[in-house]
Automatic annotation (TrEMBL):
It comes from Dinghuibacter silviterrae. The gene is rpsU. GO terms for cellular component: ribonucleoprotein complex; ribosome. Residues 9-36 form a coiled coil. It comes from the Bacteria. InterPro entries: Ribosomal_bS21, Ribosomal_bS21_sf. One of its GO terms (molecular function) is structural constituent of ribosome. This is Small ribosomal subunit protein bS21. Keywords: Coiled coil, Ribonucleoprotein, Ribosomal protein. Belongs to the bacterial ribosomal protein bS21 family. One of its GO terms (biological process) is translation. Gene3D superfamilies: Ribosomal protein S8 (1.20.5.1150).
Amino acid sequence: MLIIDSKDCENIDKALKKYKKKFEKAKILLQLRERQSFTKPSVRRRTEVLKAVYRQQLANGEIEK
């Protein structure tokens, strides 16, 4: 649970902005998306390897954006 400490004189917009930043830093939305469907560990590992290969090819200049 996210708790935002706000002063009595603080504007509600500022408190909302603080809440949104804390929400992003906590990565709650990413966790919810991951939990929507189960991916096998072998599939997860395979996608990580493919992403790493792609990033390496971009760094080497083999692939152009």
